[in-house]
Amino acid sequence: MAEKLKLEIVTPKGAVLSDEVDIVTAPGFGGEFGVLANHAPMLSTIKIGTLSYRKGDRQELLMVSGGFCEVSNNKLTFLVESAERGGDIDVDRALKAKERAEKRLAQAQSQAENINRTRAEAALQRALARLKVAKGQ
Amino acid sequence: MASLKEVKVKIGAVKKTAQITKAMNMVAAAKLRGAQTKMENFRPYTEKFNAAMGNLSGNMEAGQFPLMEAREVKTVELVVVTSDRGLCGSFNANIIKLTERLTRQYEAAGKKVSLVCVGKKGNSILRKTGKVRKGYTDIMGNFQMFNARAIAQEVAANFLAGGADEVRLVYGKFKSVASQVPAEEVLLPVQPAEQSAGAHAGGADYIYEPTPADIMEVLLPLYLNVMVYHAMLEVGASEHAARMTAMDNATKACKDIIHNLTLLYNKARQAGITNDLMDIVGGAEALRG
Asked: Which domains occur in chain A, in start order?
């Protein structure tokens, strides 16, 4: 596979990644999707989850949180709120966040507080995604 | 003429002031660098975001989304972003002046005006007008996206509830280290982004996942976040730049005053010596008698 795809990940804190890669797999709205070179132009929303890409025989994982991505002319641009590599993730913090979110979720369920619940759910998803990336799965 | 001692005390006081302003200048310079980097890091995000927005809104009708709906304007809400701290020259005053001018303009046209103040300075001054609907203070120190999100959500909810028919953002734009100008932008209803000719080439062929309308639902609130956050970053950088210039001027003024006072002090001292000499000579003359 000679043709490469330009992958760019941009967050409000700056560009995280800009590289030529072979294949990208991302958590889209309707589930995971993969993008290869010469993909048709596309615009999709991104959920919290793990983004993986392959360059040569190297496979890399990143945790991404909500945003969207655009594919056009062999260029794949992710605009997400945050993106972290496995090595940058604080596992302890993510574990604590997970516990906290689970506790809150249990509380919110009994009280049916809507806003707190969606927030706790998002926090839980972020924590889980972080842990997954940190473990390199 | 002031006595010798008074002048000396005054010189000491001014010197201390100069020391403080000099230190503040250097602190502002260091903080400016941080704020400016943050702003520059955010720029690619905004650019890509706007490009995608433009791309998307090309095949949308504005009436489809409540956040884009243009209504007859009865109430205008101004979101005024100022700094939390003063001592930065006329920076905050300029933003407030612009706000007051806009307020008068809208009220002359028979529209109601309500204000949302971000930053302590604007809040404390504009509160007197009695038009402030909501104030956010002490959030300009460290720029956090979730602060911007809270503001954007509040403003959007008010817009949707009919509390305001148009929302404008008033803030200080960072042009360069030497120049910051007050600026205003329309926040709500969201304007369909203008198409840059290149960006939209082949836009109709896009695959939308899930549907353009659904993406727009996600993008619109995000767009407000981006706008508010952007304004906060601009104000942050402008504040430090303005303070740097103001403190530099203050230090220079202090030096001028010290120079003048030293001159005065030396003159007084010389006059004193001359008087003493006259006394001695006079005394000697009298003795020789």
From this structure: 5-87 (2.60.15.10), 90-134 (1.20.5)
